[in-house]
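Worked example 2:
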Amino acid sequence: MVTFVSPEVPGDERGALLSFVESQRGALRRSVHGLSEAQAASCPSASELTLAGLLKHSAEVELNWLRLAQQQPNERQRSQETWADGFRLVGAETVAEVLAFWDDVAAQTERFAAGLPAAGGLDRTFPLPPAPWFPEDGKVSVRWMLLHLVEEFARHAGHADIVRESLDGRTSLELVELASGQSWGQSGDASPGPA
């Protein structure tokens, strides 16, 4: 669960982008650390957002963008009628299953990006689907897609921070400590430093 994104190797834009995507995935995944299924699926506020739902939505969003970039059908495509199911566990779904699904999608994204040509691969474009929030006949690049995944996951990691703190008071820094087994205060430093 990455918390610090190492400086990229000079000229490795693809690696830097993938590292930032993984960092934000880690922030979301860390939000359920130590929780029961019931806690992860609970709504501790007026919002309908749950940690389990945020994980599921983020995994499905990544799959959707990957399939768009690959120009392949999305096997988990949501309709207006099933849109809300993308934000909650349905039937016998578990957090562990959602995390395993996301692991698979993340590996597919990594393989896809690694398989692009070194020169110009991130510039490869693909069409946006018809939607009121996209320009008609719009196209985006693979670079745009990876940046958008960072944006999407970071937004939902912020949501997850609030939901988790509402559940048991644990902050993101505490979750980093729990997940890593280390404490930033152990070295005698009284402050976490800049974020």
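Strands lie at 125-127, 139-141. The chain has six helices and two strands.
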